[in-house]
């Protein structure tokens, strides 16, 4: 029990000692040595020390720094006393001297400690004050008040500038892309209608072409008689084909007399087909195209919902 | 560098287009066009210009280079020897982009406001299977003008203008296989806007199962693993979906064979697929000359700044 108890007490000693180690270097080395040397009477000392260290530990652990500083002074005094007592047992004087030196150091330390404690308090107060201040949650964060306004102004300015710039850019892009729309992936009614219109136009043309080309299949254009018949047939069949569904094609898009108010007589035009591309003179002479803005000879009756289909494509 | 540029300019002025300016079948003059832009133009409009050039193929300058310092006179000077008859001029104003369609060298000029436009890329992106083979641009498109028959003068002028932009076809000699594209202009009376669309024409035989059609078209060995017998390939209809309810409105009978699939004896369905670009135009102004001269018509009400008596009588 004895050995175990001592060891346990040793441990107990060690703990607080270790805590103190950093603060009292002078006594540390000495005590370690002493521990090693003393084997017999350690029980008594240990008990004392135990109490002492316990007290010290309590003081140390307590938050009050002032009391701790005092305690530190006390403990160091006691330690000195204790050290002196323990020093009796030691044979050599060197240790005593050493001890004395260390105690002097301790005294210095006490003074420093009080000074430090004062500084500590001031620091603590300042620190707690700072920590207690409620920081306004603006962009700036904690900034010294002298510059606060300036910086805030600058930041606000930058912000507005950026905003203005961004808006200008957006506007520019809008202007640039004006009218540009992405088509839908589905066919809406309008597009369907347009496709149907276009399809109608193509069908009409294809049918007209097939009719015309069917009709001329039997005739050989090499013979003059046939050629004449062919010419007549072509025009007639094609025109009739075009006119059939519409009643009348809005035919006179001819380059003839567009804007003249008088409805002139149309003698020469009776022979010619109404549709300009079918005329023999179509686009051969520029003179007609020049007076495109003259009035058409006949007032054209156009069905309201008719599709004046005109189809033209190249040769082959 | 400078010398190099000089050389290029020289070669550019030379009329290299020695193709016939007259159709060898019908004897008509083939209209040709320039598509260019004036002023600073955003990227999307530049793209639209390229699309319009493709649309105007083959009788247009696909790689026409223009510079800032080029003015209208430069284009006119080149247009003369090249036989260019039409200008399509894109420009950008703050309110909207504008398209001018002009006849050279004397005019008239039609000014359209582009309310909305979509590029060919946008149109292709919106489709599940965009179809745009390069061969269809080897021939000029058909043009269909619809709804223009209201009798107003400026509308008639528009129709004339657009009819003459593309070469005329001779109904008796035309080869239908050359008709692969169509340009549609549809006038809406209420909004006074013109819808401009560009479609490709596809012909499909009627009453043939999709499987057979694909087989004939693609010339590839079909996958017969799932079938019990070879005859199943012909007799089984497969999934007879895809709007097989072909309305008769779209069917035509051909006189000549058109490709391998569309024989003269069978009926065919016409299918259109949009290739873009699409535009919504509004006629704003008609000028007598080439981007100049008296104003014949304006949309803004103050009609006839250089008033013609005839015009007033007409209205």
UniProtKB/TrEMBL annotation, chain A:
InterPro entries: Rrp15
Recorded superkingdom: Eukaryota
PANTHER family on file: RRP15-LIKE PROTEIN
Region (Disordered): 1-115, 250-278, 293-316
Annotated Pfam families: Rrp15p (PF07890)
Compositionally biased intervals (Polar residues): 251-268
Basic residues bias locations: 15-34, 44-55
UniProt family annotation: Belongs to the RRP15 family.
The protein's name in its UniProt record: RRP15-like protein
From TrEMBL, chain B:
Domain of life according to the entry: Eukaryota
One GO CC term, this protein: preribosome, large subunit precursor
UniProt xrefs under InterPro entries: Brix (IPR007109), PPAN-like (IPR045112)
Coiled coil segments of this chain: none
GO BP terms: ribosomal large subunit assembly; rRNA processing
Pfam families reported for this sequence: Brix
One MF term in the entry's GO annotations: rRNA binding
SMART domains, alphabetized: Brix
Domain Brix: residue ranges: 31-292
Protein's name in the database: Brix domain-containing protein
Organism for this UniProt entry: Aristolochia fimbriata (White veined hardy Dutchman's pipe vine)
High-level lineage: Eukaryota, Viridiplantae, Streptophyta, Embryophyta, Tracheophyta
